[in-house]
Design brief:
Layout (H helix, E strand, L loop, with lengths): L19 H19 L4 H4 L9 H24 L12 H5 L7 H20 L9 E4 L4 E4 H25 L2
Antiparallel strand pairs: 1-2
Length: 171
């Protein structure tokens, strides 16, 4: 099945703020989902280039690389800024990183640690923070904390689906 490109996706950002705890739980679970997805995968497949994009390890590395963007946007919401920082649409950090030469255990531990730190900060926010918003630069829409978490979950799932595609194509 042809995949829907990430930059062609649009978001409504219409979840009620009360959806935040559910989405936070989804966000918290991504590292475990990554681990489960690659459990038993032959080591050579983790860095195999199928010519359709990043390898499994590069996808995991990208999730690590982009975590700083989610944290920065969170900090901007907390600070009451009106515009969120733009993402590097060229993915320079991921393309320059040597994720294929890192151990998979190191990648998984790094992602788990970063995500734990992020979700720990998110869960300490008071309910009044759920209503703050700032403009997402590419989408040109107001993004609240619940929307940031939803957007991050969707981005995670996009890369998990790509990893699953690579795993399935190896069968």
């Amino acid at each position: 099945m042809k995949r829907w490109p990430w930059f062609e996706r649009h978001f409504n950002f219409d979840y009620p703020p009360e959806k935040f705890p559910d989405l936070l739980e989804r966000l918290r679970g991504t590292p475990l989902r990554v681990e489960a997805l690659i459990a038993g995968v032959r080591p050579q497949l983790l860095t195999a280039d199928d010519g359709q994009g990043w390898t499994i390890q590069q996808n995991i590395g990208h999730l690590i690389d982009v975590e700083t963007l989610w944290v920065r946007r969170f900090e901007q919401l907390v600070a009451g800024e009106s515009n969120l920082v733009a993402a590097d649409l060229t993915n320079a950090a991921t393309n320059a990183a040597d994720h294929n030469n890192r151990s998979i255990d190191d990648l998984l531990a790094s992602f788990c640690e970063g995500r734990y730190e992020f979700t720990s900060r998110l869960e300490t926010q008071s309910e009044d923070m759920w209503f703050r918003s700032a403009v997402h630069p590419r989408l040109e829409k107001q993004m609240r904390l619940v929307d940031l978490v939803h957007f991050t979950c969707e981005h995670d799932d996009y890369h998990l689906a790509r990893i699953r595609q690579i795993v399935r194509n190896d069968v």
